[in-house]
Amino acid sequence: MARDANSGMVERRGAGLWLTHLGLIIGVAFIFFPIWLAFVASTVTQPEIVRPPMPLWPGDQFFENYSKALTSGINAPVARMLFNSAIMALGISLGKIVISLLSAFAIVYFRFPGRKIFFWLIFLTLMLPVEVRIVPTYEVAANFGMLNSYSGLIFPLIASATATFLFRQFFMTVPDELAEAARVDGARPMRFFVDILLPMSRTNVAALFVILFIYGWNQYLWPLLITTDPSMNTIVMGIKQMFPSGDDTADWPVIMATSILAMVPPVLVVIGMQKLFIRGLVDSEK
């Protein structure tokens, strides 16, 4: 009887497991299907796209369409726009992490008047997104001569109250005994920061880097305002510019190939830092 009950539990557990996997497969297929259609559209000819029904399997124009996408563009080659987006995303993500680490370190480990006031002033900037302060930010960038430059793309977006708050919360969980031991051993504050806090923050940094890289890569409004030189356009701007206006005909295979190319760098970042990213989000023992 006990064996039959156990076997029934195993069977029910097995059925539930299969149903769970089936639900996951259906969800992944539902999400991935538009991406698959975009990839298929990037490997066929223009008549095959506009003539229904649209093909569901890749064609034989992969190399031709992707080489055309990399070397062409409305105002600048796609390869150039991919490079601009990569510089902007890396600059924003690395800059945000460095500034947030240092500011959180100062707020947690240094005693100075108005420490909590400064922290809450930083935190209040979350209430003012870029869209709200975009006019004065643009005026400041223009006065400093940062139009049509990588510094103009990066510096106005380089501060992050969210990252500062997250690092502050993590530093507050670090035992005070570590700081006391480092002080007894004669380690100066920056030595304690570099040798102890940074290694302990590795997973947090990785998780934030992935999120901030995607944030910087997907920026559209700010690059649209700060750049007037076509050679400084980002890939998100380039995709928008490829859509026709009026009675012009869209080159859909090239547009879809450009869209797939725009997805590759963020996907590589997520895949390359997947383990650290997941640990940084769910691991409680950093």
Please explain how this structure is put together:
The longest helix is centred in the first third of the chain and has 40 residues, at 2-41. This protein has 15 helices and no strands. The chain has helices at residues 2-41, 46-50, 62-71, 78-109, 115-124, 134-143, 150-154, 161-171, 176-184, 189-200, 202-217, 221-226, 235-242, 252-272, 274-282. It is mainly alpha-helical and 286 residues long. α3 crosses α14 (252-272) and α11 (202-217) packs across α15 (274-282). The chain has two domains: 2-66, no CATH class; 75-282, MetI-like fold.
List keywords for this structure.
286 residues, mainly alpha, 2 domains, 15 helices, 71% helix
Structural class: mainly alpha
Described by the principal axes of the CA atoms, the overall outline is globular
Cα(first) to Cα(last) distance is 47 Å
Averaged pLDDT, please?
82
Tally of contiguous helical segments: 15
Counting structural domains, the number is 2
**Can you tell me the CATH superfamily of the largest domain?**
MetI-like
Task: Name the helicity range.
Answer: over 70%
Task: Show the helix and strand layout.
Elements (H helix, E strand, L loop, with lengths): L1 H40 L4 H5 L11 H10 L6 H32 L5 H10 L9 H10 L6 H5 L6 H11 L4 H9 L4 H12 L1 H16 L3 H6 L8 H8 L9 H21 L1 H9 L4
Quick summary of this structure?
By secondary structure, the protein is an all-alpha fold. The protein has 15 helices and no strands.
